[in-house]
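so ive been stuck on this for like two days lol. basically i have the seq below and the ligand is manganese (II) ion, smiles is in there too. i just want the complex predicted, nothing fancy, no docking runs or whatever. if the output looks off dont worry ill sanity check it later, just need somthing to start from for the group meeting slides
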Amino acid sequence: MREARLPEPDELGDTLVLHHWDADGVASASLMLDYLGDYAEFYVPPLGFYWLDSQAANEIRDLGTFDTLMVLDMALPVESIERATSAVGASRVVLVDHHVRSRERLPASWTSLVDVRQPSASWHLTQLLGAQPDLRSILGVAGDLGPTLRSHPVYPEVLGVLESLGMAVEELERLAELVDANYRVGHREGVRDAVFVLSRGYKAPWSLLELKKWVLRHRSAEAEVERVVREANVEDFGSVVYVEFESPHLLISTVGRRFAWSRDRVAVLVLNSRWRKGYAQVYSRVHGLDLDLTPLAEMARSRGYNVGGKRESVGVILPELEARGFVRRALDWLRSAFRERKEGE
Ligand SMILES: [Mn+2]
């Protein structure tokens, strides 16, 4: 089989690039801007939503018509991508990603450049472009790998790029946090703008590290985490801890991890009861023991909620009005799962 390749800019034509809002998505979009130049237009989906609703489709339609729709660093459902494609009248779809996709079959006409072995979309894209890795290539890696960066096989190559830039790894991590601050505080225009800021400034990382608007947004994101941790309602059932708060920020997994890691053997269930646009968020994580949360994810999925997660953590977006009912059932499930474990020991 011939390996799929990234089509040339003149094959892609006018291209609408839908990209993820995190540091990797932003860095990848900036690399794509170099490649496509004036042929590229960018769109960031509503922050925190891993699908495109009719309102998003309208926003996309307002951007005009395009030859190609590209989805970068985001495993959007096929239906959402089809919705966006028809909204802009595109005849070509290209996916550039490293996320595991659900079992959905992709239409055969799409160009799928998905490689789940890649540490980031930015690293993947750098290779697809046959380019020398630059700051953006490794910024996505640092953002996506987080604290596991230093033990990942790609780390020596990251260090090589850092050396050529005269930059320390801590500075790279700090820059990824600064870019992420835009989405954490819910500043969608800031995410969009960050693509262009990176394109202008990637050769001068120090000026980026001091960019006032990013520094301030980062400070406010951190302050909101502290506020939520301090003010949240916490119910302790022993092995299960329930945490509830309200915040418009995307911080539920950060808060959940904080509570999980402060105890030995625990499952935490966290509810952000009023997140935004009539939606709430629920997050669960186990720490210090092996309890498979997949049934919890299935419970949410069967109700039609948007669900992401792994064995040890699950995130759910659901209508605000249904949140408490779901949380009650989830707590019941978690507590009985624990009881069964105790009896089995
Ligand atoms: Mn990524």
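Residues 24, 73, 98, 120-121, 144 surround manganese (II) ion (CB under 6 Å). The chain is about 45% helix and 20% strand.
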